[in-house]
Amino acid sequence: MDSPAANAAFAKQINIKFPLLSDMNKKMLTAYGVLKGYDVENQTYQWAQRANIVIDKKGIIQHIEEGDGAVDPNTAMSVCTDLHKKQAAK
Amino acid sequence: MNRTLAICLLLAATPVVSSAPAQTQKPALAKISLKVGDVAPDFTLLSDQWKNVRLSDYRGKKNVLLAIYVLAFTEG
Known about the structure:
With about 90 residues, chain A is an alpha+beta fold. Chain A is about 35% helix and about 30% strand. In chain B, strand 3 (about 45) and strand 4 (about 50-55) form a beta hairpin. A two-stranded parallel sheet of chain B has the order 1-5.
């Protein structure tokens, strides 16, 4: 499990300025339904699957990508940009 | 990016205790349980700065991009 300390080292290495969060007890992942079970050598392991989720200022989900489609964040970023433009135009 | 909060969740695999009967069952494959238009469930998680970050703290202030991926220091 990646701890906040591991995330801090990772954030420093790749020089990002936004928060990296740790779901140590998987509550959020469970609530969002992104945990995936894998059977390996008769043991079940749970991993989060890749997902990008855009949530607007009202807390409403506006965009979801999952699996391989979520590896590249650019589409989700475009959704955010468009969302902001629409909100600014109102 | 400055107007949008991006949050990444980094998660490593952890074994789930599974009994012998459970091994015969196919694990439930995740299909994201939310859809566009749903209210995003609130959560509070520890950031890399050891501070609680709540989704609802951004309500009415910023759009949020949640990028969920599996392991730090990998391309996964």
